[in-house]
Amino acid sequence: MEKNKYKLPDIAYGYKDLEPYISEELLKLHHQKHHQAYINGANAILDKLEKDRSENAEADIKSLLKELSFNIGGHILHSAFWANIGPKKNEDNRPKGELLQILEDEFGSFERFKKEFSQAAVSAEGSGWAVLNFCQKLNRPLISQIEKHNINVYPSFKILLVLDVWEHAYYLDYKNDRAKFVENFWNIVNWEEAAKRLK
Fold first, then answer.
1. CATH number at residue 139
2. Which residue pairs from 75-78 have beta carbons closer than 8 angstroms and sit at least 24 positions apart in sequence?
3. Are residues 133 and 58 in the same domain?
4. Quick one: pLDDT at residue 40?
5. Is the pLDDT of residue 193 over 90?
6. Are residues 194 and 102 both part of a single domain?
7. Are residues 114 and 135 in the same domain?
8. Tens of pLDDT along 40-62?
9. Mean pLDDT (whole number) for 75-91
């Protein structure tokens, strides 16, 4: 029986639609090449595990599962990232309603949230992500830094907003100026998607 495989998700906007904040060339490369590489990696490991099982062969389970976690994490986070960004809709580009309220309640103000989230993104070591999570047990939002795709994850916490700060996400447009990329990210956040995830 043919088993399901991971597939590259479509993005809900054109490759030129995020300019001048993300160029068409960078967005296409990031989506079609980098994200696809994680999907290919995950599917290849699943195929290897299936083959080893069918042949009753020994597999390096520790190594394979670590690599599988890395690739699946890359796929999940990138999929969330594409939906978290979109063409700029208005000048202030701020959340509204319940999402804005929980951010203000937790951080004191939306500006303070932006500052802390930006600091998390800029200071992520090596390759990683800044993430706004929501803990249902505490009923409050929490910021995290995820290293690579699978280290420092808050298991089961809902992801409301993610920002990819691997160099492949910005280097073509911003060179080594990660802080400028993070600053421009706020222009293209899709707050409607983050609010939908909160629901």
1. 3.55.40.20
2. 75/6, 75/35, 75/38, 75/39, 75/42, 76/149, 77/129, 77/146, 77/149, 77/159, 77/162, 77/164, 78/31, 78/34, 78/35, 78/38, 78/164
3. no
4. 98
5. yes
6. yes
7. yes
8. 999 999 999 999 888 888 888 99
9. 93
